[in-house]
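Section 3.1: Structural characterization of target chains.
Under the original work plan, the team committed to producing a structural model for every single-chain target entering the pipeline before any wet-lab resources were allocated. The record below documents one such target. The sequence was received from the expression subgroup and is listed exactly as submitted; it comprises 194 residues.
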Amino acid sequence: MISEDYLPISRINQFVYCPRRFWLVFIEDSMQIDTQVLEGIVTHKVVHANSADSNRCTNLSVVSHRLKITGLIDVAEPILGGFRIIEHKRGSVQAWENDQVQITAQAIAFEETTSAQVLEGSVFSWRSRRRDDFVITPELREQVEVVVQSMVDLLTTGMRPAPIQEKHKCKNCSVRDVCQPTLVQKINRRTSQP
């Protein structure tokens, strides 16, 4: 049985991308349904509906009781010596850090759920119809543990994180209007001045 204190693996991606975004979506339920979000929802529905390839497992529920994380895997594909976890994305083909950490968390949960080894991860881009493969390294596995603990610590403090300094991440963020990163940073600068 999975209790409510298990973290959704998809939220790991959001936390690594921006802890404030994670907070606004996961705690304050401030998700804005924009075109990008809708495209992502449709992409995942198509993936899960078109799972005729018998060699692959799709829409697979996984859990790690050790890390207290749970989620769905788009595709688990057998490869020589183990499996590759494939996450479908609507945007660019590059496997960014947040994607790699999410997929590694899925790999850890897949291994605990199935006792099979995951060697690789992959981001498949619906836009370009290409994918970016990467090796699931011990360093990525360690990073998952650190990130999950950081998420738990943040939830325990109950304090909304400050906006991140990486402005390029804010540009197309679906919670930008709620987050108000520029306004919050201006206020913080004014209140910190003598």
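The chain has one domain: 7-162.
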